[in-house]
Design brief:
Blueprint (H helix, E strand, L loop, with lengths): L1 E6 L18 E2 L2 E2 H12 L4 E6 L4 H11 L7 E5 L4 H15 L7 E6 L7 H14 L1 E7 L23 E10 H9 L3 H6 L3 H7 L5 E4 L10 H12 L1
Parallel strand pairs: 1-4, 1-6, 4-5, 7-9
Antiparallel strand pairs: 2-3, 6-8, 7-8
């Protein structure tokens, strides 16, 4: 079985509105989350699609879906996420285990709600790569020189750009292995690891690369929303 978990637990602080999570800001005539959700529902790739939001926004999220994409109301479930990203992913795994007959071959595709321009190609290649390799991350080659500074004041190193990539989402996994990896993390590891792919690397597990797209941008700041509006119009 194949499951999609849309991670919509972010806040609106960096968008200038601490009271409204950024995924609920409008992009064109509907919220960012709805644009993202439509891509996954329309793909036809999933047995179930789950949205994970702040607990106080669960009902509002259901209402937003009913208002803006009523055709997918019965295909989408909404539950509360966790305190951190990996907690939210664990909530998704528990939900799918409780609601479906999950076996060792089950795939979970996790995606940021604020990446509304994800393509069908990226979704399909994530599923294929997770089936083939057990885990994958969507990336694009780094185009800028990456500078490392351990103290935030002076350069410590400048890695070879040809070996560097910028991470996007989806990140996709065989669900049972992902669960085992996340449950194996010690408290001190959880404190520094907020990304499931990092947890895999820490455990020495292979994470394959899926080619992303520069348009698969993450909307974080007000200027990102202006760029997204231009992409939408184009």
């Amino acid at each position: 079985m194949q499951f999609a978990a849309i991670l919509a637990g972010g806040s609106g602080v960096r968008m200038g509105n601490p009271n409204k999570p950024k995924q609920f800001f409008f992009l064109g005539d509907k919220p960012i989350l709805v644009h993202t959700l439509e891509k996954f529902c329309a793909s036809g790739c999933f047995d179930a699609v789950l949205v994970l939001t702040p607990a106080t926004w669960v009902q509002q999220t259901k209402d937003i879906i009913a208002r803006h994409c009523p055709q997918y109301v019965d295909a989408v479930s909404v539950i509360a996420g966790g305190a951190e990203r990996n907690d939210t992913i664990m909530n998704a795994i528990r939900y799918f285990e409780e609601q479906y007959q999950v076996d060792d071959g089950a795939i979970i595709v996790t995606h940021d709600a604020v990446r509304p321009f994800v393509s069908l190609r990226i979704i399909e290649e994530n599923i294929a790569s997770a089936l083939a390799h057990g885990a994958c991350d969507t990336v694009v080659p780094a185009t800028d020189t990456i500078v490392e500074s351990l103290d935030g004041e002076a350069i410590s190193a400048i890695p070879n750009r040809s070996a560097l990539y910028q991470g996007q989402t989806p990140q996709s996994f065989r669900m049972q292995t992902l669960k085992e990896v996340l449950l194996s993390l010690a408290p001190e590891e959880k404190a520094i690891l907020t990304d499931a792919c990092k947890a895999y690397v820490l455990r020495g597990k292979t994470v394959a690369l899926v080619r992303g797209d520069v348009e698969n941008m993450k909307i974080t700041y007000p200027q990102d929303l202006r760029i997204a509006e231009a992409l939408l119009e184009a």
